[in-house]
Design a protein that fits this description.
The chain is mostly helical and about 70 residues long. It has one domain. The chain contains 3 helices and no strands. Helix 1 runs antiparallel to helix 2, helix 1 packs parallel to helix 3 and helix 2 runs antiparallel to helix 3. It is elongated and about 40 Å long. Keywords: Membrane, Transmembrane, Transmembrane helix.
Length: about 70
């Protein structure tokens, strides 16, 4: 549960930084938003005891966040 919350916080901080910078937002910002949603889902799944699904959601969120840095 804490790993999902950590990934969600990182995505949230990056999103706030991108929105407050004043530059044009692109596909990378959308991907970070989807990663934030996936990490939030992993926290809820872990809270309900669905740890395998939660781990898949964390991996998806972390992989998407690392991919989002390569996107414009």
């Amino acid at each position: 549960m804490s790993a999902g919350a950590l990934v969600a916080l990182v995505c949230l901080f990056v999103l706030v930084g991108r929105f407050s910078s004043g530059t044009q937002t692109g596909v990378g910002t959308v991907v970070y938003g989807l990663c934030l949603a996936s990490a939030g889902l992993s926290v809820e799944l872990a809270r309900r005891g669905r740890t395998r699904l939660a781990m898949m959601a964390i991996i998806l969120a972390a992989a998407g966040a690392s991919l989002a840095d390569a996107l414009p």
